[in-house]
């Protein structure tokens, strides 16, 4: 993950939550009081986000130490203690909600991704994420996808050339769009082009595109496309992909499947923090 962007996001989240100060904690908890707390993930999950939790407390001043009881990427079968923290009681309480929000969201994405990856067993398809991410969270959410066993597609518009339907419409056609892109970027960047029909697929094959995205095609049409291409370029399937359709899409013989739901529809998991007295 991009720790520079992550720390920017953490600062924003802490400012949002703490504001002018934690009036409850500052009124009740003595400045020098030390405490111990345990963080739990309360359901079956793939844990993701523990390093981000640590960064939250580092941003508060580094007066809280965190010991991992599991590691990111580890699968748990039910309620599990994932880390133990010790240090300033004030800082534990001030950072609690922000830290847990990161852990909850990222663990939810990793868990959902792992569920999706399991639907691909027995095929050679690889699962990709998309740019349908929470604004500001992209680096973290794509980290969670990797933690769950998926692969990252573009991080941004500067990663690679992806010629979509609107680019094609404004360029006058697939050949024109690919030719202009290649003339601009040379061999420095890969070019992927999106097609909606088998006719457009044939047109794309006559260009020097490095990869072709098959948009919103049914599994039987995807199978035809795979046979038509016969391995000349990698093929990606996208559009209306969910846990129910994923296996059928993969069984078409496609190389990659992009699934926006990995980040825009994953459900956060239930997490909590309890003060421990020993």
Automatic annotation (TrEMBL):
<dbReference type="GO" id="GO:0004514">
    <property type="term" value="F:nicotinate-nucleotide diphosphorylase (carboxylating) activity"/>
</dbReference>
<dbReference type="GO" id="GO:0009435">
    <property type="term" value="P:NAD+ biosynthetic process"/>
</dbReference>
<dbReference type="Pfam" id="PF02749">
    <property type="entry name" value="QRPTase_N"/>
</dbReference>
<dbReference type="Pfam" id="PF01729">
    <property type="entry name" value="QRPTase_C"/>
</dbReference>
<feature type="binding site">
    <location>
        <position position="194"/>
    </location>
    <ligand>
        <name>substrate</name>
    </ligand>
</feature>
<comment type="function">
    <text>Involved in the catabolism of quinolinic acid (QA).</text>
</comment>
<keyword id="KW-0808">Transferase</keyword>
<feature type="binding site">
    <location>
        <position position="215"/>
    </location>
    <ligand>
        <name>substrate</name>
    </ligand>
</feature>
<feature type="binding site">
    <location>
        <position position="164"/>
    </location>
    <ligand>
        <name>substrate</name>
    </ligand>
</feature>
<dbReference type="InterPro" id="IPR013785">
    <property type="entry name" value="Aldolase_TIM"/>
</dbReference>
<dbReference type="InterPro" id="IPR036068">
    <property type="entry name" value="Nicotinate_pribotase-like_C"/>
</dbReference>
<feature type="binding site">
    <location>
        <begin position="259"/>
        <end position="261"/>
    </location>
    <ligand>
        <name>substrate</name>
    </ligand>
</feature>
<comment type="subunit">
    <text>Hexamer formed by 3 homodimers.</text>
</comment>
<dbReference type="InterPro" id="IPR004393">
    <property type="entry name" value="NadC"/>
</dbReference>
<feature type="binding site">
    <location>
        <begin position="238"/>
        <end position="240"/>
    </location>
    <ligand>
        <name>substrate</name>
    </ligand>
</feature>
<dbReference type="InterPro" id="IPR002638">
    <property type="entry name" value="Quinolinate_PRibosylTrfase_C"/>
</dbReference>
<feature type="domain" description="Quinolinate phosphoribosyl transferase C-terminal">
    <location>
        <begin position="109"/>
        <end position="274"/>
    </location>
</feature>
<feature type="domain" description="Quinolinate phosphoribosyl transferase N-terminal">
    <location>
        <begin position="22"/>
        <end position="106"/>
    </location>
</feature>
<feature type="binding site">
    <location>
        <position position="154"/>
    </location>
    <ligand>
        <name>substrate</name>
    </ligand>
</feature>
<dbReference type="InterPro" id="IPR022412">
    <property type="entry name" value="Quinolinate_PRibosylTrfase_N"/>
</dbReference>
<dbReference type="InterPro" id="IPR037128">
    <property type="entry name" value="Quinolinate_PRibosylTase_N_sf"/>
</dbReference>
<dbReference type="InterPro" id="IPR027277">
    <property type="entry name" value="NadC/ModD"/>
</dbReference>
<keyword id="KW-0662">Pyridine nucleotide biosynthesis</keyword>
<protein>
    <recommendedName>
        <fullName>Probable nicotinate-nucleotide pyrophosphorylase [carboxylating]</fullName>
        <ecNumber>2.4.2.19</ecNumber>
    </recommendedName>
</protein>
<feature type="binding site">
    <location>
        <begin position="130"/>
        <end position="132"/>
    </location>
    <ligand>
        <name>substrate</name>
    </ligand>
</feature>
<comment type="similarity">
    <text>Belongs to the NadC/ModD family.</text>
</comment>
<feature type="binding site">
    <location>
        <position position="97"/>
    </location>
    <ligand>
        <name>substrate</name>
    </ligand>
</feature>
<dbReference type="GO" id="GO:0005737">
    <property type="term" value="C:cytoplasm"/>
</dbReference>
<keyword id="KW-0328">Glycosyltransferase</keyword>
<comment type="pathway">
    <text>Cofactor biosynthesis; NAD(+) biosynthesis; nicotinate D-ribonucleotide from quinolinate: step 1/1.</text>
</comment>
<dbReference type="GO" id="GO:0034213">
    <property type="term" value="P:quinolinate catabolic process"/>
</dbReference>
């Amino acid at each position: 993950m991009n720790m520079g962007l992550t720390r920017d996001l953490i600062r924003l989240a802490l400012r949002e939550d703490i504001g002018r100060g934690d009036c409850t904690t500052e009124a009740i908890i003595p400045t020098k009081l030390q405490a111990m707390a345990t963080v739990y993930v309360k359901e079956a999950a793939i844990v993701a986000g523990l390093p981000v939790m640590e960064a939250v407390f580092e941003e508060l001043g580094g007066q809280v130490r965190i010991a991992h009881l599991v590691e990111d990427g580890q699968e748990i079968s039910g309620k599990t203690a994932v880390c133990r923290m010790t240090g300033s009681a004030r800082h534990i309480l001030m950072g609690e909600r922000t830290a847990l929000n990161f852990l909850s969201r990222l663990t939810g994405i990793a868990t959902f991704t792992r569920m999706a990856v399991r639907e691909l067993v027995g095929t050679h398809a690889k699962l990709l994420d998309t740019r349908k991410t929470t604004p500001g969270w992209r680096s973290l959410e794509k980290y969670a996808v990797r933690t769950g066993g998926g692969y990252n597609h573009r991080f941004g518009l500067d990663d690679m050339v992806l010629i979509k339907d609107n680019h094609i419409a404004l360029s006058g056609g697939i050949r024109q769009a690919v030719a202009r892109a290649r003339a601009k970027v040379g061999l420095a960047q890969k070019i992927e082009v999106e097609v909606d029909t088998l006719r457009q697929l044939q047109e794309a094959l006559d260009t020097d595109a490095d990869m072709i995205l098959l948009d919103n095609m049914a599994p039987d049409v995807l199978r035809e496309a795979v046979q038509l291409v016969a391995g000349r370029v990698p093929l990606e399937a996208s559009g209306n992909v969910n846990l129910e359709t994923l296996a059928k899409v993969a069984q078409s013989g496609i190389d990659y499947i992009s699934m926006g739901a990995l980040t825009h529809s994953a459900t956060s998991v239930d997490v909590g923090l309890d003060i421990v007295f020993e």
